[in-house]
Amino acid sequence: MLCDLVPGGTSKQISAAQAARILGQVTPSGAVELARAELAAEFLEDMRRLDAQLGGTRKKLAAAVRSSGTTLTEVFGVGPVIAGTIIGDIADVSRFPGRDHFAACNGTAPVEVSSGNRKIRRLSLRGNRRINHAIHMAAITQLSHKHSEGRAYYEKKLAEGKTHKEALRSLKRKISDAIYARLQADARQAAAAQAKGPGGHPGNDSASSAAGSHPARQLFGQATPGPGTSLRPSTTTGTPPKPESKKTRTTT
Fold first, then answer.
1. Which residues have CB under 8 Å from 131's CB, separation 6+?
2. Angle ∠(90,95,98) on CA atoms, nearest 5
3. What's the alpha-carbon Rg for the chain, to the nearest Å?
4. If you average pLDDT over residues 58-69, what whole number do you get?
5. What's the pLDDT score for residue 70?
6. Model-level pTM?
7. In this structure, are residues 48 and 23 in contact, taking their beta carbons and an 8 Å threshold?
8. Rounded to an integer, what distance in angstroms lies between the CA atom of residue 247 and that of residue 252?
9. Within a 13 Å sphere around the CA of 65, how many CA atoms are in the beta-carbon half?
10. What's 70-108 look like in SS3?
11. Which residues pair with 131 in a beta bridge?
12. Backbone phi, then psi, for 92, in 5-degree steps?
């Protein structure tokens, strides 16, 4: 609607505040432009309402990821949305014997289409596409930070003669391996917390930020401590043990 009201149109990405400023500068001439301005104002209110809903959803998701005690957000580029997607779809990492099986599941492992003596690998369209997209977004975050380890790894692959798509696929596989390592570490920590019994005090000692994509964070290992405004408390990593079921108690 703003494109119809403003000569030259507007940019593709625009916030509600920017739209409000532009709309406030528009002086409709005629009944048609007046109707368009009124409709644009209604759309603006819809944008503000949706922005508020998205903000609330992000806060709820960040709280859910925080309460899970995961360390996935310590991987550069992995925030609450990506972490929540992976945790929700993977559920139990023990069903993957190794990182190669995990990569095959999320589609970051290439498919071999060799013929004769020629060994050719192409992009795999199999596996969980939601997790694949989550890993792709983490890779894009890496590429947007010129001094990140992910960007250096990508440029190294380009120097080896790989195309942009091939280098990006290699980076996605590297991130997949890092995510698998974090999931395994989380599972071991949760098992150790369960073994402590009711007397243990498991928690979460990671100080990862909600965004999980700060340039200071490492890509393929544990991140450096984030700022003090972390959404995750500074306690001991783990999942609180389940209380003892009344059915399993023995009456003397």
1. 85, 86, 89, 90, 105, 106, 107
2. 100
3. 24
4. 90
5. 92
6. 0.64
7. no
8. 14
9. 29
10. CCHHHCCCCCHHHHHHHHHHHCCHHHCCCHHHHHHHHCC
11. none
12. -125, 110
